[in-house]
Each structure stands twice: as C-alpha cells, then as structure tokens.
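Following the same procedure, sequence and fold were stored together, as reproduced here.

>
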Amino acid sequence: MSVQPIVGPDPDDPVEILRALPPQHRQQFLGDYTAAAREALSVEGYRRLREVLQRWGLRAAGASSGQEEVADAPRRAPEEPGAAPRAYPEKSLRAIRAALVTDEDRAGFDDGLRQVLSEVRGSLDLSGLQEFVHTWWLIACDSVRDPGGRAEVYRRAAHAQQLAAAGRPLPAGEKTWRQLLAERGVAG
C-alpha cells in the first residue's frame, strides 16, 4: 500500500490562495503570510499561521466566486456590548461540532460526517471531506455569530412545513433574499 496525495487543492495552501487572490490583495497576503510564517518558527506561533491561511483562504474563495464581500468578513463574531469576545472555531471536526448550537445542526453534522467518511473509505479521495469540513465550518461560524438566528431558521422551517402539510398558504417574507443576505454580510 502506498501513500497517495490528496486530490484537489487545499483551500489553506498559500500557493492556491495566492493564485486565487485578485492582484490588489496579493502583496497584503504575502506580508501577512511572511509574518505569520516567522511566528510559526516557535510552537506558540503555529496557530497564528493557521488563522492567517484560513482567513486568506476564505478571502481567496470569495474572490474566485465573485463574492469578495463575503471573503472580507471579520474573523471574530460581532459582540454584544459588554459581552466577552467570541472567536470563530478552528477548522477541525471537533471544534466545528462543539460550536454548533442547535440539535438540528448537530444531527446534520453527525449524519453528514458518517456519510462522507463512508465515501472516503470507498474512494480514498479526501476532497469530499475537505468540502464537508469547510461547509460545516461556515455553519459553525454562523452559529457563533448569531446563535439565536440558527434556532430561528429551524423554527421557521418547521412552521412552514406544518402550514404546507395542512394545505395552507405559506407566509410571504417581509424581506427579499438579497436583503436577508446583506444583513448577514453576504453580497447578493
């Protein structure tokens, strides 16, 4: 049995990040990366390098999908006045699951993880796992940013399902999708 390379680009690979970034952001990335790489020479500095690569990886992904505003989102969750700062979770399965605030999210994470691990065992291709981790990390960040909002999403979905099952009309929203996404810091 031989070790096989990971198929597909790593979203936190500095070469991939640099390639995906628009030219106007490359110098800033290189400066941040170089400083964090120097810090990473000490054991304590390693986390800083990971944070820089994750932040710039998100920025590069947003830029390559035409949503630079998403990529420029802050790394820390907004805070209520007087509340302790809330950091976004690390990009690990354990940290992501710990950050999920609703039973529905935790159940979806657990079910999805079982499915993706089964697929990885069969194909030996880690790209599905990488996509799973990234997708659920974004959901975990949303949970940290707005825990009540995550619960509200499921409450409204359950209400809509009850109305649909009873054959009653679904309520029209007060806001468009663009307005809702803009409130969450996502360009529509």
Observations:
- Residues 103-123 form the longest helix (21 residues).
- The chain is about 65% helix and 0% strand.
- Residues 180 and 186 are 9 Å apart (CA to CA).
